[in-house]
Amino acid sequence: MLISCQPQMEKLEENDAGAGVTTNSTFDSYWQDGKAEVSVYELSQNRYNATHPGKVVSIFVQEDFLTDKQVKNESYESKSSTPILKNILRTNFTTGIYDYSLHTSVFTPINQSRFSTLKVTNTMQDWCGTTFLQMNHKNGVYFLEQRSYFEKEGDRRVELEQAVVEDALMNQIRLDYESLPIGEFKLISKLSYSAMKHTPLQTYHAIGELNKYNGTAFEGESLLEYRYTVAEQKREVTLVFESVSPFKIVGFTESYPSAFDKEVRTTIATLISN
Question: In this structure, what is the dihedral angle of CA atoms 141, 26, 20, 66, given to the nearest 10 degrees?
C-alpha cells in the first residue's frame, strides 16, 4: 500500500556536510514519488511463557533529515540535510493479561558512504507503564538515552562504540542488501528487544549469513533470507525478503528463551497486506 506524504518543499543545494544523491542502483524512483509504503504483518509474539497474536505495521518513506539536529527537515533553511529512508514499526499484541504497544522509528541516510544510521527511537507501553529509548549517532559514537518506569533501569545515558544497528537492518535490505554484515560483527540490539527483555545497553557479538530462502512459511518472488545469531542472548533472527527491487520484506522470525521457563519460542511476522 502506498500513501501520500507531505509534499516536499524546494530543497536547498547540497553542501559538503549534507548528503549527496545515492549511487546505489537498487534505490530507484520507487522511493522518490512522495508516497509511503505501508505493509501489515500477522504476528505471533514470544512473550512470557507463550506466543500471542498481534499485528505489525511497517511504514517506509523517503524524506529529508537534518544531520545536526537529527529531526525531519521541514523548513529547508539549513544546508545540513540529507535524504534518508525512514522505517516506522508499530507492533501491537496482547498477552491475555494486558496489551503491549511498541513504536520504533529508524532514520538511515541513503548516502551510506558518508553517514551511518543517524537515529533510532523506541517507546513501549503496557498496563504497568512506559519506557522510552533514543539513540543518536554523532562523531562516530552512539549516544543512547533511556527513560523507564523500572527501578533498576531508571533514567540513563550510555555511549556505545560504532557497531551495526540491528534496528536498521530492514532499512539496509531496502537500500542495499548486498551490504548486510556477513560473518562476525558487533551489534547494537533492537531497542524494542532491550526494552522488553531488560538487557544491558551494550554492543554484542553476532554472526550473520545471507542465503536463498528454501522454507515454506513465507511467499514472494525470488526470496532470500538474512539470518543472524547473538550467542550472548541465545537469540536468532531471520529476515526474509524478495531479491528483486524494491526488495520487499515478506516476513521475519526471532527466537529466544522465555523469561519464565527458559524455553526457546519463536516470534513470527508474516506479510498479509502491502
Answer: -50
**Identity at 145, one-letter amino acid code:** E
> How does pLDDT run across 218-238, given as a tens digit for each residue?
999 899 999 999 999 999 999
Angle at 108 between CA 12 and CA 35, to 5 degrees: 70
Nearest to 22 by CA among 84, 113, 116, 110: 110
In sequence order, what are the residues at sequence separation of 6 or more whose Cβ sits closer than 8 angstroms to the Cβ of residue 29? none
pTM exceeds 0.85 for this model: yes
Phi then psi dihedrals of residue 214, to 5 deg:
-115, 10
Q: Are 73 and 42 in contact (CB under 8 A)?
A: no
pLDDT at residue 177 in the model:
96
Q: How far apart are CA 237 and CA 229, in angstroms?
A: 6
Burial (CB < 10 A; 0-12, 13-18, 19+), residue 38, is middle
Contact 172, 185 (CB under 8 A): no
For residues 53 and 164, give the distance between their C-alpha atoms in angstroms, rounded to a whole number.
30
Phi, psi of 263 (to 5 degrees): -75, 135
Q: With 70 as the cut, is the pLDDT of residue 272 above it?
A: yes
To the nearest 5 percent, what fractions of the chain are helix, strand and coil?
10, 50, 40
User: C-alpha grid cell for residue 127?
Assistant: 498496563
Give dist(CA 82, CA 17) in Å, integer. Answer: 9
Q: Of 196, 189, 248, which is closest to residue 58 (Cα–Cα)?
A: 248
For 82, list phi and psi in degrees, rounded to 5: -145, 145
